[in-house]
Amino acid sequence: MATGKIVSRLHLLIDRCVRRYTEIEEVSSPTKEIEKDLLLSLSQVLREIQSWINEIASDSSEEAGEKTIDHEDETTAALYDPESEEYLCLERLVADLGSQWDDFIRLLCECLRLAVVYSCPIPDSEIGFGILRNILKRLSQEENEELLDVYLESVNSTLAKIPWCRVDTLFSHQHGNGERNSQGQNGALGGTPTSEEATVFLGNFVQFLCSVVQQVRFAEDNDGFEPTHLILQKTIELIPDLLCWCQPKLESQSGSCMSRYLGHKLLVLMIRLTYQSNIKCTILLSWLEYLQRHFQGFLQHTLTRFEPDQDNCLEGSPFFVSLSDREVNETHSNHLQRLTVLLFLRCSFTLLYSNRHTNKHCEFDCRKKGMEEMFKWIEGQVPGDTFSDHGTYTKKSVDFSTSFVRLFMHEDDLLFKVLLQLLSIPLHEKELLNVEGHSLQDEEQTILFRLSTLFNPVILFCIFLSELHYDHQVLLDYLISKDIGASCAEYLLRCLRTVCDSWTVFVEFPFEGSTNASSSKRRKVLTENSEVEQNGKLHPQAFEDAKDCLISLQNSVVKLHQKKLFPYNPEALLRRLSRFQELCLSHE
Question: Which of 35, 103, 303, 586 has its CA at 20 to 30 Å from residue 281's CA atom?
Answer without folding.
Answer: 303
